[in-house]
What we know:
By secondary structure, the protein is an alpha/beta fold. It has eleven helices and 14 strands. Strands 1, 2, 3, 4, 5, 6, 7, 8, 9 and 10 form a ten-stranded mixed β-sheet that branches. The chain has a four-stranded antiparallel β-sheet with strand order 11-12-13-14. Helix 9 runs parallel beside helix 10. It is globular and about 70 Å long.
Amino acid sequence: MYKSLVSVIVPAYNHEKYVQDTIKSIINQTYPNIELIVIDDGSKDLTWQKIQEIKEECEKRFVNIHFETKQNEGTCKTMNKLLSYANGDFIYLIASDDLAKPQAIEKEVEFLSKNHDYALCVGDNELIDANSTVGYWDKDRNFVYNSKDAKFKTFAQFIQKRAKFKLTSNKFGRYDKLFEENHIPNGYLIRKSILKKTGYFTPEAPLEDWWLMLQISKYAKLKYLDEVLFSYRWHSANTIKQTDKIENMGKQTIVHEIKILENIDINSLPKFCQKYIKKINKQGICTYKIGIPFIITINNYKKGNDKFKSIKLFNFEILKKKK
Length: 323
């Protein structure tokens, strides 16, 4: 297992306070065979200086390192450049303000090494603040420190509340479930060979993580390990807090995915995924259902940015209306 090289890629931007801790969390991995690739995307603070300060320690720890700074080009181009430098059998992505638990890479490599029909493996995320103190989310995702005030103690608990299936089930990472929304936590390990089928990132799908998950799920399985392997930092600069921006990026991403589905040769995909894509192309994703199954049901469907309401009587559609 330890023979497999893991390429850890770190897109860094304006994280002078956190980037060294991120890199140290990779230095402290129990898995030995790692190369580290870090690109500073034209940070306006001292991020690049902080990266250089830890270079000597990285040279001693890793089989290979590549540190680079460039003019700001955004996440998509930076990620594609990072991937182009990766030599590993597996790729581990971590943002420059998050932390990986010491056994994260070892446990995820162990699973993928034994399960070749899977192309991605990920664990749960604990939540930390700007000072790396562990905390929780209340119902509105405000950071709290008292567990009695917590609605969600981990990132996966938040995802599980929204999902209509168990994350530990075989529905995790399934294409039709991902089409509804992204439910993959942070800190995932990818089998590099899958990128030959999925391709790299595109600016037409600005929610890069979600788009990549959708592409991977067309060709392989994704696995959730029910243990905390990652620390997700919740602070004032999190992009995810910019709800209007994230919503717009999500719309762009799913519109681009719909275009892909309209032109894809479904027969070129594995059979396990074909039925889900055929279903989406025909009617979209069912986001809400109420009634008595097989007798009368009211269903809400989503197809791209369009929403429909459907009424079925004895499983026959008697009314379909655009909302």
